[in-house]
């Protein structure tokens, strides 16, 4: 009797386990297939976009009337951005696939710039035409390589999930057609020099200025520690560590860490070797209840900058995040705001001590500039604005434009409805260099529900 | 038996009195601006009062949310212009006095509407009751908020010095609060055991990648790029991040980059890919090596 019950119970259990196991297996497979499908979609879309890219660039070259180029170039721009996003979805993070992505973004930047330009007034130069032809040729090569990979994938029924596994296990030497194929694509692109693109082609990536404007002697580790102690203001018996930057950094710097004894307080700072300038400083500690106002804090920040030899600065933005105040300063020369020279400060609103300081942008770009005379009058610049906006403030400013060049502009603060805009009009030719909608405070969602 | 009942009754009454007292105290003290000079970017009760008073006079047409944004700034400057004050966009003593003189501020009404999440305004010369509307999220939810909301609010305001009623928050230009949240998730999943600057550095790497031509152009694109972050691959990104991770993200967005413009980082003890060792290294923070 007991035996019968036991056997019955066990067999029910066994069947149950089998059913459960089968369901789990099916679910897992479904998810795997889903992930695989996403990869496949991204990959096939990518090859499709590159095909399309090649065709479109080809047709722009063939266009006789250069003024009809604009819409075609805008289309090229759209396609590169889509192709770029497809690359981002593929599990290639561990593969050196950067060159291809950079290539895509170069085509994108080039086509965008030429598409938004008034090509009637300012047609493509011969160099730009040449660049376009070069891009066409490169696109052809990449298209060719990608098609090769695609063909192998389809013919041999290759799985992207296998690529993931191969990359994750570090087994890149193992023969994996997809990986090999992409490496070939990468090599093909690498073969092109950026100089191919002609002098008219401005590299849009952030220029690494390397602190070239800094002056002064190389400082020693001890001097770096001394400077960091001055900023941190922590007790003398704090633990101090200093390390030097590695070869990956184009400029040399010291990293100083100061730990206050018996507490959670830690100060960190990076200092340039040349001249001993503070690149950034962060004090990590808990900030308690607010005791001082944002305005008090901004005065403390201004005082601090003066004491440390940063002069001719304008407070540009202030914002309160919980119990800290964050301030942005920009430098000023002959009453012109220099936006590329910016310094950030963070002040605790409990005791008014400095929590942070970031001067990387300032140190990289600050120097005495030759500010040209404005060609347009204020009135002429004002006339270039959209008549709908109400102008609240104006001043002169130097900004970095889309081409990464510094330009002298008229800056207008203007409102339209409840929104505030910052509009920059080039003081030489009246071009609208930048129109920024300034962010409004964001509603807190959780409190309302 | 009866005696103990009496005792407990007295006790309950005492407890009720104790519970009510702090509220009545609050009402007495809170009817005017505090001493501070209020400037652009500030958050808190003073800003709510400033916005309400400016709206009463018809200078401010935006939402009364307790964050001193551009709308409030221009309203204040227009007020200063009309009333012959120095036009500096700062609410100092003189400006505040003039405001208090010229306008009324119904604090109870404003705070109640904010707590309930209602749409409302505070214009002078119109019946306040006609200036409120239950929030669009449905009447039921708003009614509930009225009952329990006040209690929650008291709990909340203990933490952050009287900012319990603020209904908006500052966000850095170009980022939404959700972006910050996703990044905080990623930072927490990737680097929760690291020192604070190590967490800022990880957040900075995400931002550097967004700006780099070699990576996707959005925060979520960078974070969810397959195989880019281990925390995404193994699901640790969905742990609830702590306040430190969020602070670290805010610092990174606001311009602090302890990584030295790095695009990659790895933990030398657990890194599986030999390729990562070929990247030029910049520095080591905590367990992570940051590289170009």
UniProtKB/TrEMBL annotation, chain A:
Q: GO biological process: what's one of them?
A: spore germination
A Pfam family recorded for this sequence:
YPEB_PepSY1-2
Task: Please list the residue ranges annotated as the Sporulation protein YpeB N-terminal domain.
Answer: 27-162
Q: Where is the Sporulation protein YpeB PepSY1 and PepSY2 domain?
A: 180-372
Q: What is the official name of this protein in its record?
A: Germination protein YpeB
Task: Write down the species.
Answer: Cytobacillus horneckiae
Automatic annotation (TrEMBL), chain B:
Please state every residue range assigned to the domain named Peptidoglycan binding-like: 44-99
What are the UniProt keywords, alphabetically? Cell wall biogenesis/degradation, Germination, Hydrolase, Signal, Sporulation
Show the segment(s) annotated as Disordered.
121-172
Question: Where along the chain is composition biased (Gly residues)?
Answer: 137-149
| UniProt-listed GO biological process terms | cell wall organization; spore germination; sporulation resulting in formation of a cellular spore
**InterPro entries in the record, alphabetically?**
Cell_wall_hydrolase_SleB, Peptidoglycan-bd-like, PGBD-like_sf, PGBDSf, SleB_dom1, Spore_cortex_SleB
Cell wall hydrolase SleB domain segment(s): 193-291
**Secretion signal, residue range per the UniProt entry:** 1-18
The molecular function GO annotations come to: hydrolase activity
Q: Which Pfam families is this protein grouped with?
A: Hydrolase_2 (PF07486), PG_binding_1 (PF01471)
Family named by the database record: Belongs to the SleB family.
The family database entries (NCBIfam families) matched by this protein are listed as: spore_SleB (TIGR02869)
Q: What is this protein called?
A: Spore cortex-lytic enzyme
Organism for this UniProt entry: Cytobacillus horneckiae
């Amino acid at each position: 009797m007991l035996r019968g019950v036991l056997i019955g119970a066990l067999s029910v259990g066994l069947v149950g386990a089998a059913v459960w196991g089968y369901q789990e297996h099916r679910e897992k497979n479904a998810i795997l297939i889903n992930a695989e499908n996403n990869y496949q979609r991204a990959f096939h879309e990518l090859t499709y976009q590159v095909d399309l890219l090649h065709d479109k660039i080809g047709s722009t070259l063939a266009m006789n009337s250069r003024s009809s180029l604009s819409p075609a170039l805008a289309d090229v721009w759209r396609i590169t951005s889509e192709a770029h996003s497809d690359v981002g979805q593929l599990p290639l993070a561990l593969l050196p696939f950067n060159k291809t992505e950079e290539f895509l973004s170069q085509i994108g930047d080039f086509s965008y710039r030429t598409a938004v330009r008034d090509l009637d007034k300012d047609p493509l130069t011969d160099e730009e035409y040449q660049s376009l032809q070069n891009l066409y040729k490169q696109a052809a090569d990449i298209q060719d390589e990608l098609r090769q990979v695609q063909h192998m994938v389809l013919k041999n029924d290759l799985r992207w999930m296998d690529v993931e596994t191969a990359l994750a296990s570090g087994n890149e030497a193992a023969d994996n057609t997809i990986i090999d194929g992409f490496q070939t694509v990468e090599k093909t692109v690498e073969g092109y020099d950026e100089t191919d693109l002609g002098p008219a082609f401005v590299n849009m990536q952030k220029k690494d200025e390397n602190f070239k404007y800094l002056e002064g002697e190389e400082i020693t580790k001890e001097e770096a520690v001394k400077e960091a102690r001055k900023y941190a203001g922590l007790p003398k018996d704090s633990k101090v560590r200093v390390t030097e930057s590695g070869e990956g950094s184009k400029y040399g710097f010291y990293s100083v860490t100061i730990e206050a004894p018996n507490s959670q307080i830690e100060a960190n700072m990076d200092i340039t070797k040349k001249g001993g300038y503070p690149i950034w400083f962060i004090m990590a500690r808990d900030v308690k209840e607010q005791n001082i106002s944002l305005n008090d804090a901004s005065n403390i920040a201004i005082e601090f900058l003066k004491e440390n030899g940063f002069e001719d600065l304008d407070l540009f933005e202030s914002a309160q995040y919980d119990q800290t105040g964050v301030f942005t300063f920009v430098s000023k020369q002959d009453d012109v705001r220099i936006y590329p020279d910016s310094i950030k400060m963070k002040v605790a609103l409990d005791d008014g001590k400095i929590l942070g300081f970031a001067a990387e942008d300032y140190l990289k770009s600050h120097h005495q500039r030759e500010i040209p005379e404005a060609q347009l009058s204020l009135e002429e610049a004002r006339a270039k604005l959209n008549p709908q906006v109400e102008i609240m403030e104006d001043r002169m400013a130097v900004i970095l434009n889309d081409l990464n060049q510094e330009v002298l502009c008229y800056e207008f603060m203007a409102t339209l409805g409840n929104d505030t805009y910052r509009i920059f009009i080039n003081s030489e030719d009246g071009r609208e260099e930048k129109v920024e909608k300034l962010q409004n405070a964001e509603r807190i969602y959780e409190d309302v529900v | 038996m009866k005696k103990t009942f009496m005792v407990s009754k007295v006790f309950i009454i005492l407890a009720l009195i104790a519970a009510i007292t702090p509220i009545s105290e609050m009402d007495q003290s809170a009817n005017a601006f505090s001493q501070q000079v209020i400037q652009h970017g500030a958050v808190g009760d003073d800003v709510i009062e400033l916005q309400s008073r400016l709206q009463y006079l018809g200078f401010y047409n935006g939402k009364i949310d307790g964050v001193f944004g551009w709308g409030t700034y221009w309203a204040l400057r227009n007020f200063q212009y009309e009333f012959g004050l120095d036009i500096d966009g700062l609410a100092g003593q003189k400006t505040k006095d003039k405001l208090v003189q010229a306008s009324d501020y119904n604090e109870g009404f404003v705070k109640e509407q904010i707590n309930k999440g209602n749409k409302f305004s505070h214009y002078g010369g119109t019946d306040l009751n006609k200036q409120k509307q239950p929030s669009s999220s449905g009447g039921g939810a708003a009614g509930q908020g009225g009952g329990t909301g006040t209690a929650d609010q008291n709990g909340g305001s203990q933490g952050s010095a009287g900012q319990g009623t603020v209904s908006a928050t500052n966000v850095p230009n170009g980022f939404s609060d959700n972006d910050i949240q996703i990044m905080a998730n990623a930072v927490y999943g990737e680097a929760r055991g690291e020192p604070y600057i190590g967490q800022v550095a990880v957040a900075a790497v995400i931002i550097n990648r967004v700006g780099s031509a070699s990576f996707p152009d959005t925060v979520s694109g960078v974070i969810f790029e397959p195989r880019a972050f281990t925390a995404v691959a193994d699901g640790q990104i969905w742990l609830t991040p702590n306040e430190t991770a969020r602070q670290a993200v805010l610092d990174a967005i606001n311009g602090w980059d302890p990584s030295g413009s790095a695009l990659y980082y790895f933990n030398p003890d657990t890194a599986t890919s030999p390729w990562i060792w070929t990247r030029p290294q910049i520095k080591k923070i905590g367990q992570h090596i940051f590289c170009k």
